[in-house]
Write a structure and sequence with these properties.
This protein has 90 residues and is α+β, with helices and mostly antiparallel strands. The chain is 20% helix and 33% strand. The protein has one domain: Protein of unknown function DUF2790 (Spermidine Synthase, Chain: A, domain 2, Roll).
Length: 90
């Protein structure tokens, strides 16, 4: 159930990415954000989505990336897999 909630959050974030992508910097107070890879059951503290990568036009799982700030204001980069947008419904 938690994975479903996280994936729904990512889907909504991807749809709203243009509204949040004004600040594309991956640094907070001069410290570069480290890249984390999402795994099942991972607890995410997402306060603000900064940017979400575009999803490849393939009919297969593809890598995606989200930059966000946690409730402490620390910036994170999260790598995860999503289904590509190239699958037809017919």
């Amino acid at each position: 159930m938690n994975v479903f909630k996280a994936l729904m959050l990512v889907a909504f974030a991807a749809a709203a990415a243009p509204a949040f992508s004004a600040d594309d910097s991956t640094q907070t107070e001069g410290h570069p954000a480290s890249v984390e890879t999402y795994h099942y059951g991972m607890k995410l503290d997402i306060q603000k989505v900064i940017s979400v990568s575009e999803i490849a036009n393939e009919c297969a799982p593809v890598p995606a990336q989200m930059t966000y700030e946690d409730s402490q204001g620390k910036r994170h980069i999260l790598k995860y897999q999503v289904m590509g947008t190239g699958c037809s419904a017919g």
